[in-house]
Design goal:
alpha+beta
Length: 143
Amino acid sequence: MLQRDQYETLVYTLPTRYRAIRMSTLVLSPPELDTARLTGLLTFGEDLVLCMYEMLDFQEGIITAYRYEVSHCVPPFVETPLPDAEIYCRAHYTDKNKLYWYDSWPHHKHIPPDIKHHRIPAPELSFTEPNLPFLIHEIEALA
């Protein structure tokens, strides 16, 4: 069961827990309510970017919806700063190469060659446990 204080600690200490994370713009909002939204991005080596969107219900202790997208930033974000997550994480932002994404209907992963329509099951993802550790470990294996 997800608890807000534990989830906040996880989210806001990610860069100190995982050396592969170069930058985090994750924000859990609004503060101190039973429902919240987690949005933002994490950057990694090899110009990898994880866009995050989660809707959380802390009263029920669950993630009610999510969307996670992993991409290569083009041009590299070390040369040109990334735009705000709200802009970069849009589905049709042109300066990124989408590698894969996850959505919650039901848990599945969209992968090439036809990334929009080619889906495989994603049993590692959960509505009752944080998905961030799994996602970060998966990206670390790519970097």
